[in-house]
Amino acid sequence: MINSDFPILQDSSNDGQGDTVSLSMSVSELDDSGEGKGKKKRGRPGKQGVASKKARRSPVDKAGRRPNGVAHQNGEGTDPSTLFEVVKQGKSAMQSVIDDWIESYKQDRDLALLDLINFFIHCSGCKGTVRIEMFRNMQNAEIIRKMTEEFDEDSGDYPLTMAGPQWKKFRYNFCEFIMVLIRQCQYSIIYDEYMMDTVISLLTGLSDSQVRAFRHTSTLAAMKLMTALVNVALNLSINQDNTQRQYEAERNKVAGKRANEKLELLLEKRKELQENQDEIENMMNSIFKGIFVHRYRDAIAEIRAICIEEIGVWMKLYSDAFLNDSYLKYVGWTLHDRQGEVRLKCLKALQTLYTNRDLFPKLELFTNRFKDRIVSMTLDKEYDVAVEAIRLVTLILHGSEDALSNEDCENVYHLVYSAHRPVAVAAGEFLHRKLFSRHDPQVEEAMAKRRGRNSPNGNLIRMLVLFFLESELHEHAAYLVDSLWDSSQDLLKDWDCMVELLLEDPVQGEEVLGDRHEGALIELMVCTIRQAAEAHPPVGRGTGKRVLTAKEKKTQIDDKNRLTEHLIVALPMLLSKYQADSEKVANLLHIPQYFDLEVYSSGRMEKHLDALLKQIRVVVDKHAEMEVLEACSKTYSILCSEDYTIMNRVDIARSQLIDELTDRFSHSVEDLLQEGDEADDDDIYNVLSTLKKLTAFHNAHDLTKWDLFKNCYRLLKMGIEQGSMPEQIAVQALQCSHYSILWQLVKITEGCPSKDDLVALRRVVKSFLAVCQQCLSNVNTPVKEQAFMLLCDLLMIFSYQLVSGGREALQPLVFNPDSTLQNELLNFVLDHVFIDQDDENQSMEGDEEDEANKIEALHKRRNLLAAFSKLIIYDIVDMPAAADIFKQYMKYYNDYGDIIKETLSKTRQMDKIQCAKTLILSLQQLFNELILDQGPNLDRTSSHVSGIKELARRFALTFGLDQIKTREAVATLHKDGIEFAFKVPNPKGPEYPPPNLAFLEVLCEFSSKLLRQDKKTVHSYLEKFMTEYMMERREDVWLPLIAYRNSLLTGGDDDRLSVTTGTSSTSKASTVRSKRGRPPQHKRRPEEESVEGSWVMRNDTLQTPGGLHTPQLTSTVLRENPRQAADHIPDQDSSEPGSDPDFMHNPQLQMSWLDQQKMEEVNRKERGGMNYMKSRSGGVRQQVRGLMEDDAEPIFEDVMMSSRGQLEDMNEEFEDTMVIDLPASRNRRERAELRPDFFDSTAIMEDDSGFGMQMF
C-alpha cells in the first residue's frame, strides 16, 4: 500500500521549481526518443512490425456491427466517427464505449492509442489530427507544436469554456470517460507499461503548453486520471491487506492443516499486488510531480481550481497516503490565491476533510499553521468565499473546542449583523454551535423535562440576551434574530419561556434579570414574533419578499396562531408591568400587528381585548414620547380595521379617548392664550403633552370632526404675533394642522365635494401656507425646518398635478408659489443646507455632537435639499432657482452630490434648453462672486478659477456623447456665455478687455459639445462682439478670448458631422477607412457649402426632428403653465443680454437664434460685397492666419477629454449618456477629429425631419 514514506509522492519544495518528473516508466516514452529502458517489460512490448499486426476491421464495419462501437481513424484523419464525437454526443453508455476501445486496443494498440491521443487533442478544441506516421516517428513536443498550428485563431473558445448545456454535459462526459477508462483497465492493460506511459507522457507535454486550451484540457484530464488511479491504489491496498490476513491465518495453522500450495498462491498474489501497487505509485508520482506541482499555480484560475479540487478528493479517498503535510501545504498556500474561485475550492476541499472527525489528528498541524488565514477569510471580499470560510471554522469548532481562541470566535460573532444574509446565517450557525449546543446528554435529558424559565431554553435565552447586550448593536436585534433563525428556531420560538422570564419572579438562587436585560429580551422577543409572522428577513437583508412555498406558508400560519394564542393573554400583563418604561412599552405595542385578530372573536377572548385597550389608554395618559404615542396610534389603527368584528368595540374606546384629549386640549389652549406671556411651565406642558398625543393619533386616524385645526392655528398666530411660543408647541401645531388639511383633502377627493367644501379647504390651506411662510423667519431652527418641509409638501400636493386624472373640479385648490415665497424657500436652503461643519456646530448652540448626531444632522439637511429639489423638478419653483443649487455641486459633492446630480438630470429631461441656461447661470454667479472677492484682475491660475473650470467640465460631461440630442441646449449655453463675457464694457475704454472676458476660459469646457457647423455659427456670433483691435491682441489678459476662439476653430473642414445626413466626413484618423467613398476635394467643397446653405435657408418652415422633439405636455417652452397664465412677462428689450429675464419662456428666441445668425451672416456678405473682403484682406486675414498658426500649438488646449480622463469621469454622466470605449489618442486635437465617427448615421438618415433641424 502507499504510505506517507514512499519517496515518489513526497515533495518538500515550496515552489516546485526543483521538481522533476521521476517516471518509473520508460524515459523514452516521456521524451519520445524511441530508446527503451527501465525495469521488466519497459518500452513497447511485443515489438513486432506494423505489418505483422492483426488485420483490423474498418471503422465502418465496426460501427455497423455495434451501434455504440468506437471507430478508429484510418491514419488519414478522415473518419468522422471519433471518440470525441461519441463523448460529445453522449448518446452511448460510457462503459460500452470504453469496452469497444479496449477491444480495439487488444487488436492494435498503436491505432487505439492514436484514437485516444486525438481524443485529447480534439477535446482541446484543436481541429488538427495526429496521423499514424506522426505518432510513430515524431516526439511529443513536435506533435504538440504541429497541433498548435491547427488551432482556430479567430476564436478563443474551446469545449471546456464554451457555454450552453451541451458543453456542460460534455465536460461531465469527458471526466466520466477518463474515470471509466481506468476502472475498466485496472485489471489488465493498465499494467502493460505502454498505454499509461504514452497517455501520461502526452498529458504532461500538453499541460506544459503555452496554449491555454491544451493546458486546461490536459490538466483536467490528468487530475481526473490521478483520481481514478487513487481509486485503483485504494483497491489494491485493500486487496493487499486482505491477502496478508489470509496469508497470516494460513501460516499460523498447525503443520498438518497448513496448505503449502495455498501459501504459495497467496505469496504470489501478494507479490503481484505489490508490483501493481508500485506501478500505480509510479504513475501517480509522474502525474503529481510532472503536472500538479506546476499547474496548481498556473496563471489561469480555472486550472488552479481544478488542481485544488482534485487534491481534496485524493485526501478524502486515500487519507493514509495523501492526508499529510506534504500535500496539505499546497491547499494551505492556495488559500492566499488572488482569485475567489480558487480560494473557494480550497475551502470546500478542506470542509470535506474536517467533516470527518477521525481525520482531525492528521489535520492538527495544518490547523495550527493556517487557522489564522482561514479565520481572516471570513471577512473575504467575495461573499461566497466568506460563507464557506465561516462554515469551515464551524467545522473546526465542532471537531475541537480548543482549536479556536476567544479572539478567533469574536471575529466570527460580529458577522451575525452582516447585511449579506448568507454570511449572517453562516455566522449564526457558528454562534449556535458555540453558545447553544448542548454536549452533555445526561444534563440535556434532565433539563428537557422542565418547562418555562427552568427549561433548557431558559438558560440559552439568558445567554442570547447577554450576547446581544455585549455586542453593543442594540438597533440591530432583527438582524441577530434573522441570523439565528435557520439554526435556532426552537429557541427563538419559545415565547412561553420568554414571557415567564419577564413576568415571573426568579426562584431562589436564580439570577435576576436586570433592567437592561429585560429591555433586550423584549426587543428580541418582538423581533422573533415579526420574523415568524412575516416569514421574510428584515429590511436590508435580501432583495425583497419572495413567494413562500406551501410548506413555508403552512409554517407561517401555524406560528402566527401559536404566538397569538400565547401573547393575547400575556400582552396586557406585560404592558401593566412595564407601563412606566417608555422603551419597553413602545416595543410591546408592536406585537398586536402580528396577531391573528379573528382569535379575539372566534376564541371568545373579548375580555383580553378590553384588558389590552385599557392598558393602551393608561400608556397614552402616562407618556408624552412620540415613539410611544405613535405605537399606540398604530395599534388602534390595526385593531379598528373593518376586516374584523372587533372594530366597533375598539372604535368606541378610541372615540372616548379622543374626546377626552380634545376637551383637555381646548381648555389648556384657552388658558395659555389668556395668560399669554405669564403662562407658567404647567400650562405649557399641558398644551404640549396633549397636542403631541393628538398629533400622533391624527397621523393615522381621521380626526377632522374634532376640528383640531382651529386651536392649532390660534397657537401659531399667537406665536407669530408675540414671538414667545415654545418651539415644541409650534412644531407640533404645524404638524397637526398639516395632518388636518391632508385628511380634509382625502375626504374631498374620495367623495363629491360641493363648492362650499372647496372654498373652505382653500381658505384653510391659504391661511396655513401664509403661517408657514411667516415661520421661515422664526428664531428657532426646528420651527423653521418644520415649516419649510410642510411648505414643500403642500406645494407639491396642491400643485397643478392635483387636477390631473379627470379631477378638474379641484382647480380651486391649486396653489402656485409667488416669487417672494420662491426666494424665501431658496434662501432657506442656502442658509440651512449649504453650511460648513463649523457653522453647523455653532447653529447647534455649541453642543458637542458625536458621530451619530452628525450623521443625523446631515440626513436632515439632505431631506431639506431633496424637498426643494422636487419643487424644481416638477416645475413648481422656476428652474433658474436651481442655479444656486447647481453651483454647490463640487463644494458639497460628498454630502449632496447624488441629489444635485439627479436634480440636474431630471431638469434636463424636462427642458434641455432651460436647463442649459440654468447651468451657465450658475457658473456666471460663481464668476461674479469671484470678481467681487478678488477684483477685476483675476489670477486665472488660482484654485478658485480652477474650481469654476472643473465645475464647468463636470457640467459638460453631463451632456453625454450624443451631440445631436443636446445640440440646441449647448448652442444656447454658448450664446449666453458670450453675452455675459462682453455685456459689461471696461470703464477704462474699448482697448481694455471687458471685466468678464475671463469667463470665456470657463466656456471653453463646453466647446467640445458643439457640432462643427455650430462651432462656425457660434464663432460668427462671437465676432459680433469683437473689434479688430481685440483680434490683434496677444497679451495675457486676452488669452481667454484666444483660447475660446481656438476651441471653436479646432479641426479642419473634414472634421464635420452633417446634420442633414448624420454622417461625418472622415478625420485624419479615419482617412484610410473611407478613401474609396470620398469625392475629390474640388468637388466636395461646393457640396458641403450647398448643404450648409440649404440647411440655413430652410429655417423658416422646418421643425425640430421627431427624435429631438419635446412633448408639448412636458415642455416648459411650448405649453402654457396654469400657474403662469396671469403672470406678466417683462419686455425682453428692457433687459440686458444674458440677464435673468432671458430665462422667461420665449420660443422665438430659443428656436431660431442660431439660424438668425447664419441668415445675418449671409446678408452681411451680400451687402458688403468685395469692399468687405478688401477691407478684411490685409489685417484680418493675417490675424486669422496667425490664429490658425497658434491653433497648431494652442496656448490652451481644447477641452476634450483623454481616454483615461473620460473613464475616470464616466460616473458623472447620466442615464441618457452613451458609454463608448474611446480609442487612445496622442492629443486632444485627434480626439476632436474622431468625435463625429461616434455617431450612428443611419438613425438620422431614417428620420426625414432631421434634414432641417432648427437650433433654437
UniProtKB/TrEMBL annotation:
<dbReference type="GO" id="GO:0003682">
    <property type="term" value="F:chromatin binding"/>
</dbReference>
<comment type="similarity">
    <text>Belongs to the SCC3 family.</text>
</comment>
<dbReference type="GO" id="GO:0051301">
    <property type="term" value="P:cell division"/>
</dbReference>
<dbReference type="InterPro" id="IPR016024">
    <property type="entry name" value="ARM-type_fold"/>
</dbReference>
<feature type="compositionally biased region" description="Low complexity">
    <location>
        <begin position="1058"/>
        <end position="1071"/>
    </location>
</feature>
<dbReference type="InterPro" id="IPR020839">
    <property type="entry name" value="SCD"/>
</dbReference>
<keyword id="KW-0132">Cell division</keyword>
<dbReference type="InterPro" id="IPR039662">
    <property type="entry name" value="Cohesin_Scc3/SA"/>
</dbReference>
<dbReference type="Pfam" id="PF24571">
    <property type="entry name" value="HEAT_SCC3-SA"/>
</dbReference>
<comment type="subunit">
    <text>Part of the cohesin complex which is composed of a heterodimer between a SMC1 protein (SMC1A or SMC1B) and SMC3, which are attached via their hinge domain, and RAD21 which link them at their heads, and one STAG protein.</text>
</comment>
<keyword id="KW-0131">Cell cycle</keyword>
<comment type="function">
    <text>Component of cohesin complex, a complex required for the cohesion of sister chromatids after DNA replication. The cohesin complex apparently forms a large proteinaceous ring within which sister chromatids can be trapped. At anaphase, the complex is cleaved and dissociates from chromatin, allowing sister chromatids to segregate.</text>
</comment>
<feature type="region of interest" description="Disordered">
    <location>
        <begin position="1127"/>
        <end position="1146"/>
    </location>
</feature>
<dbReference type="GO" id="GO:0000785">
    <property type="term" value="C:chromatin"/>
</dbReference>
<feature type="region of interest" description="Disordered">
    <location>
        <begin position="1052"/>
        <end position="1112"/>
    </location>
</feature>
<dbReference type="GO" id="GO:0007062">
    <property type="term" value="P:sister chromatid cohesion"/>
</dbReference>
<dbReference type="Pfam" id="PF21581">
    <property type="entry name" value="SCD"/>
</dbReference>
<dbReference type="InterPro" id="IPR013721">
    <property type="entry name" value="STAG"/>
</dbReference>
<dbReference type="GO" id="GO:0005634">
    <property type="term" value="C:nucleus"/>
</dbReference>
<feature type="region of interest" description="Disordered">
    <location>
        <begin position="1"/>
        <end position="81"/>
    </location>
</feature>
<feature type="domain" description="SCD">
    <location>
        <begin position="292"/>
        <end position="377"/>
    </location>
</feature>
<feature type="compositionally biased region" description="Basic residues">
    <location>
        <begin position="1073"/>
        <end position="1084"/>
    </location>
</feature>
<keyword id="KW-0158">Chromosome</keyword>
<protein>
    <recommendedName>
        <fullName>Cohesin subunit SA</fullName>
    </recommendedName>
</protein>
<keyword id="KW-0539">Nucleus</keyword>
<dbReference type="GO" id="GO:0007059">
    <property type="term" value="P:chromosome segregation"/>
</dbReference>
<keyword id="KW-0175">Coiled coil</keyword>
<dbReference type="Pfam" id="PF08514">
    <property type="entry name" value="STAG"/>
</dbReference>
<keyword id="KW-0159">Chromosome partition</keyword>
<feature type="coiled-coil region">
    <location>
        <begin position="256"/>
        <end position="286"/>
    </location>
</feature>
<dbReference type="GO" id="GO:0008278">
    <property type="term" value="C:cohesin complex"/>
</dbReference>
<dbReference type="GO" id="GO:0000775">
    <property type="term" value="C:chromosome, centromeric region"/>
</dbReference>
<dbReference type="InterPro" id="IPR056396">
    <property type="entry name" value="HEAT_SCC3-SA"/>
</dbReference>
<feature type="compositionally biased region" description="Polar residues">
    <location>
        <begin position="10"/>
        <end position="27"/>
    </location>
</feature>
